[in-house]
Amino acid sequence: MSSLNSENILSALRAVRDPDLNRDIVALNFVKDIKIDGKNVSFSIELTTPACPVKDQMKAQAELVVKQSIPEIEKLTVTMTASVSKRANMQVTPVLTGVKNTIAVASGKGGVGKSTVAVNLAVALAKEGASVGLIDCDIYGPSIPLMFNINEKPGMHNQKLLPLEKYGVKVMSIGFLIDATQAVIWRGPMASGAVKQFMTDVEWGELDYLVFDLPPGTGDIQLTIVQQIPLTGAVIVTTPQEMSLADARRGMAMFQKVSVPILGVVENMSYFVSANGERENIFDNGGGKIVAEQFKVPFLGEIPIYTKIRIGGDTGRPITDSEPLSEPAKIFSNIAKNLAAQISISNYSKQAAPIEISLGNNNQ
Ligand code: ADP
Hints:
alpha/beta, Rossmann fold, eight-stranded mixed β-sheet, disordered C terminus, binds adenosine-5'-diphosphate, 17 strands, globular, 2 domains, GMP Synthetase, Chain A, domain 3
């Protein structure tokens, strides 16, 4: 009797596990659209993010186990798709209802590269196929217009502001609306009011990830802003030296106080590679990993000091767009994937375990 049927395909695929969610892809209901046409088989694997760090491995493993257990298959086509999982607090706080996940990028102090990281992570997620937005919450010193080289003013539709789109990311900043020199005179409540309006009065549409570039620091303004955003979680950016780590710890404590999950720590300016390939730890190295361990949160990765990262910021074209195959761009891309994986884990742990699909339902 032929072993080529949906039951056997699914049973073979039970050997493929999602390492982040720690279950097999059949139990997770990731396998869709099994089609059997003679000796040709196709199916898709629907992940919880297009920026999955192990997408290629999972595809290769799925092909291998199915071919091994059903040798009579002549042609096997596995398509990787994604449907991004949603944050758990969507029903509780009906704001940004088209936005599946909201990520705050924060730092204990200024100058550590928080905005640079926020911009490059947003662009990297978009490059993986996710729909992404970015809100510049730094009302006092908006740097996002410069970092995206956007000089236009946003349009309006149905009494809502339309975000400006560049490098695949929808962007909103106070810098688009008012003269940058005016921004410094904003008072605290006005600043948090502006961020609130960016959530309610901007037409974001459907987004997988909306990144909030927070103002640096851990004061009242940051706390007020953080409390009004229904956050999936926060990313803490730090540089490796002790001076910066103390501020990073304060930043993490702030998020813990308001029960916002910390999705991970990014260490920026971790090292410098000289022209002859020598690595120098200008600001020390490894501190980000240590604070992540202290707080029992994931360490998402380390970014080198690299001139083209700075040039990308100054010229308004992030390195993840201008040189996506360069080493620093790949590092941003890996950190974005690690972040996406942490978001999937966080969302998965907050929802009930998925119901196992009935094997019979997939017979085509
Ligand atoms: P923050 O948002 O923390 O105040 P920025 O993102 O504005 O910091 O970065 C401060 C400066 O450092 C900018 O000129 C930026 O281009 C530069 N910079 C940030 N990260 C790097 C890096 N990894 N390599 C080189 N320059 C960097």
